[in-house]
Every structure is written in structure tokens, then in C-alpha cells.
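Predict structure. Chain length: 533.
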Amino acid sequence: MSMRAKWRLFRREKEDPVPFYTLLAQEAAADLDRRHGPLRGQRLLDLGCGPGFYTDALRATGAEVIPVDNSEEELALAGGPPEGALLADAGALPLPDGSVDGVFCSNLLEHTPDAAPVIAEIERVLRPGGWAYVSWTNWYSPWGGHDMTPYQYLGPKLGPRLYERRHGPPRKNGYGDGLWACHIGPTLALARSRPGLSVERVEPRYWPWAAPVCRVPGLREVVTWNCVIRLRRVDPADRRADSIDVDVAANMSPQRRHRSAARSGERPAAVAAARDVEGWMTEPQLGRLWDAVADAAEDAAAGAEENTAGGATGEPAGDGRVHAGPTVVEIGSFRGRSAIVLALAAGPDGRVVAIDPHAGSDRGPGEIAGDGDRGAADHDAFHANLTAAGVADRVEHVREFSAAAHDRVAAAIDVLHVDGAHRYRPARDDIAGWGARVRPGGRMLIHDSFSSIGVTLAQLRLLMASPRWRYAGRDGSLAEYVRADLSGRDRVADAARQLAQLPWFARNVAVKVALTLRLRPLARLLGADGWPY
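Prediction complete.
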């Protein structure tokens, strides 16, 4: 059916909803049958099923469908609830883990106050390899305010108040009572933060051919109208492979790409151990740290076996002991969120050196804004958190500034994590000085990449055209580099890959300016609900 015909049905939706929603349901079922089918025999969840238009269309394909909604009124709109309907909260589903092949979730997220538990439940109930279709009407789109349209463009506070002052309460879906502001950027970030979900495609529901517009922060919030995110349930280890630059993956041996599967079950436990520790790293970023160190640990184990077979022995590290595992150095540990993951990934044979002076904040105009009480609190919390996670004996804390701590690490570094000062000069010194000590094939991960101005300028100066570092991709603002020898052609390609991150960097700077000026609606328009990490 043409868009003009659909528009006519949409205009009559309030008086006669059946033709419009029946058409949408039939088109959605046919699309899913082409993409993920045949649907016959698949066990599907219709999440936020309402009166059951989509349930009926999906059942017509031969699928087994579980309809779920939390509103008795919505379930009864078609004269009675769909057969087998469950009255349940989308954020706490009464279904076992991995129990469905697919999840269809249409126009639910804008009707829930918090999308995070809904996305988490979709991840939980999907079987490995399962798919999810999640769509919603984004707040700043032409119909984002529903009955209050176009007042939503004045923001979620002023807009609804002005609407009610002029027109009275909406007949349905008042703000905070059935309708909440849902934005593409933050929702995408939620989906990407789930370790078991991979975002396969983002597109406007009614014109999927315009999918590229969904890559443009700000513009997508206005013109998409109704956004669709297509998800896939994956093993968390697979997300690591997806986020590594294709050229880097090509230079890895098949054994290296797949051997960490034996330890993949440890990764979620390591991330969970750090989940409640204060810090800024997201869970996907913690997972990327774990993967880098786990790879190094397996390299070290393989090397130790070869040395043992050849009668060789290791050399003492800076702490006077011989370590069979990797040497990991972290600059900037704060309260231990990332150090816990590094220690668990390195294993009992590794050496993790956490360098943090715990002396205050580096965000002042000088080298450091000293704050003894704050530094002491961070220091105590750091050690308490490591003890609670059971890794206190695996982490050597160096309470010094990174520039003065070089003599505390004698061995070559396998993995370097830089999350220290965000200003240009100290970031430059950490990347240059400590990066030079990473062994060939080792890794350097830099937090606040393409987010902090100082860190990004240091990266561009030292790494963009470097003959010794290959850009391996990023999770949010955590960028990964591999120590390698690059040819001239490789350096040009590598520089291009890093330059491609600059639009994301510009967006992050704009978000920070908006939040600093307390212009949260503008930050949301740019795709962020909080400080971008």
C-alpha cells in the first residue's frame, strides 16, 4: 500500500483503529517472515501486545505467539484479550531465560517510564541467536507527543504543562501517565550496553530505505517518526569480534580469534563483580578490557609452555617475582571498577599495576586540584572494593603520578589502560611514555577517546598517523590500539579510520556543552541523556 493510503488510514485511526493497525500488523509479520522465517513453528513474544493485532498477524504465519501486556484495558480493546495473553510488566516477564525465538515489541517503549529493564528482559528471554524487533515513536518526531502534538517540541516539562493549560488533560497518554519521552540516541545506547545483544540495523519504520538518517544525531530524533531497532541475541564474546576493526581481525590468527571461547563464561562474572563499583566505564567497555587482557593471558600461557619445554625460565618483574601471566598497567584507577576486571582477566599468574595518586581531581586548571579528604576516600574505597571482589592480592597499587612511576614496572607491558588526566599534556605524556613500553602485539586502551578534548588531541597527534600503532576500534569512548609495524598505505588507512570518529567526537563535545548549560532537551536531541562515555 502507498504511503498516501497509509496516511489516510492513520488520519482516521482515532475513530476507526482496526484498518490501520491490521495493515501495519500484516506488513510487519510479512517482513519478519522474510527476514527471520519461516516463522512457522517459532516461539515468539508479542511484548506490549495491546488488543492483539500483531499477535493475530504473527499467528497467521504459523508461529506460536505469547501475547503480554500490563494493561487490562488495552488487552480488552478488541472485545477481549488475545488468546493466552499474560498480564505482566515488560520489565519483569514471567518467562524463563532463553525461552523464545523472537521478540516483537511495537510502540511500547514510549509508554514505559524506563526502557532499561525492558531491553534487559528482551536480552534475557531470547535464545542464543534469537532476534528482536523493537519500535517506538520518538519524542521529537511529528507524532511524539501523541494527543499533545506538537507541544512535545517545547520539551517534556513545558510542553505538557502548556497543552493542559490550553486544552485540558489529554484523553489518553498524558505525560508521566502513560507517555514518556523516548529518544533514539539513549535507547540505542541502552541496547548497545547489553553484552548479549547486537544491534543489526536501525531504520525509520515507515521508510526503511532512509536508514542512513538514523546515523545522524539530532536529525534522526525529528525526522524518523517511528524508529525500529533490530537486535540479535549473541554470545558476549562475539561482540568483541564485531567491534574489532576488520583489518586488525584479518591479522589475527584463527586460533587467536576463537581460543578465548574457553574463558568466555568468566567474562560476564568479571563484569558483574565490578558492576556496583563507582566509576564511569560502561559494561561493554569493561568487557573490552577483559577481552584484551584475557587474550594477553592466553598468549603468556602459550609462551610459558614453550619456555618450559625449552628449559627457559622467566625474568623477575618490578616486584621481584617471576610472573607467568601478562603484565597489565592501568593509569587512573579511581575506586577500582576497571582494576577488578583487569585482575580477574589476568588471572592469578598475571601482574596488574594500578597507578593512581588518589590525590584529588585532575579537572582543575592546574596539574591537579588537590583534595586530601576526597583522595583518602577514593584510596580507601579502591582497596575495599578490590578486597570485596577477591583480587586485592593480584593488584599492585602505586600511589604516585604516572610520570614518576616508570621505575615501578620493569617488564614489557602486555596491556596498557590509560584513564588518567583528561587534559592534553598529561594525556600526551601517558600515551607517549607508557605506550612506548608496550611490547609488539600488545594493546593500549584509552578511555575518554573521541570524547575528552585533551585526550582526543593527544591521540590525533601521537596515534593518527603512527607507524607503530594500529587502531582496533572502540566501545563508546574506550578506544583500542594494537602495537604493530604499519606500512605507508596502512598508516593512511588507519588515519582515515580514526578521522571517521570525529563526527562522534563533535557530538560528544556538543552534548557536554548542552549539559553544562543545563539544556538537557538539547542533549537528548543529540542522542544523550547524560555525560557521554
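Summary: The chain is about 40% helix and 20% strand.
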